[in-house]
Design a protein that fits this description.
About 10% of the residues lie in helices and about 15% in strands. It contains one helix and three strands; from the N terminus they run βββα.
Length: about 80
């Protein structure tokens, strides 16, 4: 089984919500948190380790801007 799970994080002064999008549908939003520029990004685990994702991450893309819903649909 294959799922697309793009997640949008936007960090601005207004801190809009982070949005989880599964197979083209927004399924959850929660308040954003401003990240520390000194922290690393961790995919498949928490930054400190110890809680690994029990699955497979096939592809990762990072964009320098927020993608629109239409752009997410085209991925």
């Amino acid at each position: 089984m294959h799922h697309r799970i793009p997640t949008r994080w936007t960090f601005t002064q207004a801190l809009p919500p982070r949005v989880l999008n599964v197979n083209g549908c927004d399924v959850r939003a929660w308040p954003g948190e401003r990240p520390s520029p000194s922290l690393n990004v961790a995919l498949g685990n928490r930054p400190g380790g110890g809680t690994p994702f029990k699955g497979r991450i096939d592809a990762v893309r990072v964009y320098g801007r927020v993608l629109s819903a239409a752009e997410l649909q085209q991925l």
